[in-house]
Amino acid sequence: MTKTSEHKAPAEVSPPMQDGQDPPNVQMLKYVVIFLGVLLVLCFITVFAVIGYRIANPRPASAVQAYSEIELPVGPQTQIGQVDIDGERMAVHLMGEANDELVVIDVKRGVLISRVKLSRTRPQTGD
Questions:
Q1: What is the DSSP-derived secondary structure letter of residue 15?
Q2: Among candidates 33, 7, 11, which has minimal Cα distance to 22?
Q3: Phi-psi map region of 110: left, alpha, beta (phi>0 left; psi -120 to 50 alpha)
Q4: Which of 52, 62, 84, 104 fits a disulfide with 113 by CB distance 3.0 to 4.6 angstroms?
């Protein structure tokens, strides 16, 4: 008894495609790439439009902070030792004949925040 094998073609999983037609997943990728390309071009146009607008219409002078002057009274023959700026605060070390002093200034508001007097005398020890 001989068996004859019949060979059947496997059932097609996807519908038959015509010549020149892409599979559905490739079509979807093409649409995604086109959409992202258009989105990228629109973002570039927006960025350059904002830059052009800001160049053509600068902020009014009232938005720019005005120069403020602070008067800092110091003693005679006082020298500036060191200046340190941290954010909106500036510390100035003033060296005088009698004593040294640290002055802290709010630079943004132009206000004297504090003065710290440094004494040159040594504290007395109780021996």
A1: -
A2: 33
A3: left
A4: 104
pLDDT digits 0-9 by tens, 90-102: 999 988 877 888 9
Q: Is 77 left (phi over 0), alpha (psi -120 to 50) or beta?
A: left
CA 93 to CA 38: how far, in whole Å? 59
> CA 113, CA 92: separation in Å to the nearest integer?
12
Considering all CA atoms of the chain, what is the largest pairwise distance in Å, rounded to the nearest integer? 127
C-alpha distances (whole Å) from 72 to each of 54, 97, 106 are: 39, 17, 13
Both structure tokens of 79? 């020298």
Per-residue pLDDT of 53-96, as tens digits, reads 999 998 775 554 556 677 887 778 888 889 998 888 999 998 88
Q: Residues 115, 103: contact at Cβ < 8 Å?
A: yes
* C-beta atoms surrounding 78 within 10 Å: 16
17, 21, 26, 29 alpha-carbon torsion, rounded to 10°: -140
